[in-house]
Write a structure and sequence with these properties.
714 residues, mainly beta, Neuraminidase, Immunoglobulin-like, 3 domains, 8-stranded antiparallel sheet, 7-stranded mixed sheet, elongated
Length: 714
């Protein structure tokens, strides 16, 4: 994200013998600034804040500013307004309504020259009409300004020589136009702040002509009542002694080492003026090969040309285009010596921002130094385009937004192309692509426990990909997100494919992403290749989260907020060796279940491990389930054979009153808080059960608010 500007070397300007007839405007919005000295000399200050003495001028100019509408510098000479040409000769302008004062501070904005004189006031000169009007009354002009600068929004900022910063709004009427905000900078010593200007990102630079000290105000908020006047001290600038003023096009960039910003168009909040994404550059944490220090917000179309090794190469896409409904892989290269949180956004609907639902595609993945394979699902309804954008941010802390200031880290923006989905395929989602169903488990089966159904609560959805012409099933997408964990035991989570043999799974093209990290093993190794395929998400869910709440529970105690931001998400992509006939018996939600984690006794004398499975009511177990557990304790299963799901005659995983040990709900769900039975959290469920599931079938939408967990913070 570095940009390379070639500063044109201007020969020594011996303007003693050059008349105005040969003068011309300056180059269009030059990146250089022009330092005017008391000694009738002028210097250039380039984009790297290096100065270069350019020679003599015919006069001393003050209160100067660059007008980007005609590319001339305007200022004051001998109490009169002058237009300064590119050979630094000047012509005097007759301005109606402008008194003769010693104007010491000025700037140009929107074809207007603002002039300030202490104890006299502030005037605005309309350069087109060549007329002046007073903006600030005499009684308010008590500050010793050596210069002032106009923010791109039109608000004036100025630092006086008493080391105070001021802000006032020149759009107000003369009667009300007073200094809005004033704050002390806490500096010491004799100061002469004669060089003050903004760049194209709304960054305010203030130069002390006595010492060369440079201060950068990078957090100004012109329309905020509580403006942020914090500043950064920059390296000293040489050759600024006896500087009277500086003129610089405030639409040009200026480099400031120490920060990194993005490249996407400014609608994505890229420049500082719109609170763009930015990071403190550090060798401790970055993307790619080395830290990248930027010019501020050179956003598209003047974005990164990627011609150096450390420019925008921290993220590598496997393909240059993203196909609707597909999964694309990326390689994230994390540099430095500390771990950081990677987050990313893609503008799926190509509306120029990252604000829409599901556009955050990577959410707080903690990554160490090195290369990491990650996957991103492309929504089937994403907009086909060759001009959308993505943003990747690595940051020392989690929960960073797509814009705004971060800590140590880096931001990289990438243009992307989205292509149409394969019209030979059709897609069916349970419950839908944009929503989740809910799985809730009691993990004490076959023993009846408190029935609060919060031992494991998982948001769950399944995508079925079929050949349009034949209806054959070619792929499955299974997404989960852990909602709560109120179990004392450790459990795994898996999905059984009833009637689909393990040999049907193409293991080379099937994979899983858990919390953003790639796993290429999903199929449980079968004892017989014709056994039903079992897809293992994890054999121990607890390894993916930590909680400081009581007993290490996750989101079951409403009095504990320490676990609200814990995330466990996984996405499994299953490809068949050849498309299979869609089984009539196959439920759209498949056959999800939990099982005892290895080395967890689960209340038994020895760990039952995979032999202890807990499925939905009337679902079939796998061949590894311990059939001896059925009809023990409180279980009242009558048909728990492995093939009962295919035969559609299972009678399993329920107690004598028909209450299951696992439930599937067709939407997001508020689970009971710890120790509150589902019968109390959802009173209508009693009627649902007693009527053999014929009445109150929407019981799950009517909770008792005092007995369920809510993610909303009170």
């Amino acid at each position: 994200m570095k940009y390379h500007f070639f500063v044109l070397t201007i020969p020594l300007l011996f303007t003693f013998f050059i008349g105005t007839t040969s003068a011309n405007p300056f180059s269009s919005c030059p990146s250089n600034g022009y330092l005017f000295h008391q000694s009738n000399n002028v210097s250039l200050i380039d984009i790297d804040r290096q100065t270069n003495n350019q020679g003599a001028t015919v006069s001393t100019y003050d209160a100067v500013g660059f007008n980007d509408l005609d590319n001339y510098i305007y200022g004051v000479k001998n109490k009169e307004v002058v237009r300064i040409h590119n050979n630094f000769t000047a012509e005097t302008l007759a301005i109606n309504g402008l008194p003769e004062h010693d104007f010491t501070a000025g700037d140009v904005h929107n074809n207007s020259l603002y002039l300030y004189a202490q104890n006299e006031g502030l005037w605005v000169v309309d350069l087109a009409a060549q007329s002046a009007a007073q903006l600030l009354k005499q009684q308010y002009a008590v500050y010793a300004f050596s210069d002032l600068a106009v923010h791109p929004s039109g608000i004036i900022y100025a630092v006086d020589n008493s080391k105070n910063i001021h802000r006032f709004d020149v759009s107000q009427s003369l009667e009300n136009n007073q200094i809005e905000l004033t704050a002390s900078l806490g500096l010491t010593g004799v100061r002469n702040f004669s060089g003050q200007f903004f760049d194209n990102n709304g960054m305010f630079y203030v130069i002390d002509a006595n010492s060369g000290d440079t201060f950068l105000f990078n957090k100004l908020s012109p329309f905020s009542f509580d403006d942020n006047f914090n500043y950064l001290t920059q390296l000293n600038i040489e050759n600024i002694n006896n500087t009277i003023d500086i003129a610089r096009c405030n639409n040009a960039p200026l480099s400031t080492l120490g920060y990194d910003m993005g490249d996407a168009p400014n609608s994505y909040q890229t420049s500082l003026l719109v609170n763009g994404a930015r990071h403190q550059v550090s060798s401790l944490l970055y993307l790619g090969l080395e830290p990248d220090e930027d010019l501020f917000a050179q956003f598209f179309p003047m974005h990164d040309d990627n011609d150096l090794g450390n420019d925008d190469q921290g993220i590598i896409f496997t393909t240059p285009t993203l196909n609707q409904g597909s999964t694309t892989f990326i390689t994230a290269h994390i540099g430095g010596s500390i771990a950081g949180y990677l987050s990313a956004w893609i503008d799926w609907n190509n509306n120029g921002n990252f604000d829409d639902a599901y556009e955050q595609v990577i959410d707080n993945i903690l990554l160490d130094n090195g290369e990491h394979t990650l996957a991103i699902d492309v929504p089937i309804d994403s907009v086909i385009t060759d001009s959308t954008w993505s943003r990747f941010r690595i940051n020392t802390n989690p929960n960073i937004a797509a814009h705004g200031q971060g800590e140590e880290g880096e931001v990289e923006d990438y243009p992307l192309t989205i292509t149409g989905f394969d019209t030979q395929e059709s897609y069916f989602w349970f419950p839908s692509q944009g929503h989740f169903a809910t799985l809730a488990f009691e993990d004490r089966w076959p023993t009846q426990d408190d029935y609060d159904f919060n031992d494991i609560v998982i948001n769950y959805r399944v995508g079925h990909v079929q050949e349009t012409a034949t209806g054959m099933l070619s792929r499955l997408n299974i997404d989960i997100e852990l909602q709560s964990y109120g179990a004392g035991y450790n459990n795994g989570f898996a999905v059984k494919l009833d009637g689909i043999p393990s040999s049907s799974i193409d293991v080379s093209k099937s994979f899983m992403i858990i919390n953003g990290k790639y796993h290429n093993t999903i199929l449980e190794v079968p004892e017989n290749s014709q056994n039903d395929a079992v897809l293992i998400f994890t054999d121990a869910l607890k390894q993916y989260f930590s909680s400081d709440c009581n007993h290490g529970f996750l989101r079951v105690d409403p009095t504990c907020d320490l676990d609200r931001n814990e995330r466990v998400t996984a996405s499994m992509k299953v490809t068949f060796t050849t498309p299979i006939a869609y089984p009539d018996h196959l439920h759209p939600y498949l056959n999800p279940f939990i099982f005892a984690a290895p080395n967890d006794n689960h209340g038994f004398e020895s760990p039952p491990s995979r032999a202890l499975e807990i499925h939905l009511k009337n679902a079939s177990p796998t061949v590894r389930a311990d059939q001896g557990l059925f009809n023990s304790e409180h279980d009242n299963s009558n048909n728990s054979r492995v093939n009962c799901g295919v035969e559609n005659n299972c009678d399993s995983y329920k107690n004598k009153t028909g209450i299951p040990f696992a439930i599937l709900l067709p939407s997001d769900w508020k689970h009971p808080i710890e120790g509150k039975s589902i019968l109390h959290a959802y009173p209508r469920i009693r009627n649902y059960i007693s009527s053999n599931e014929n009445k109150d079938d929407t019981w799950f939408a009517h909770p008792d608010p005092s007995n369920v967990y809510s993610m909303a913070v009170e």
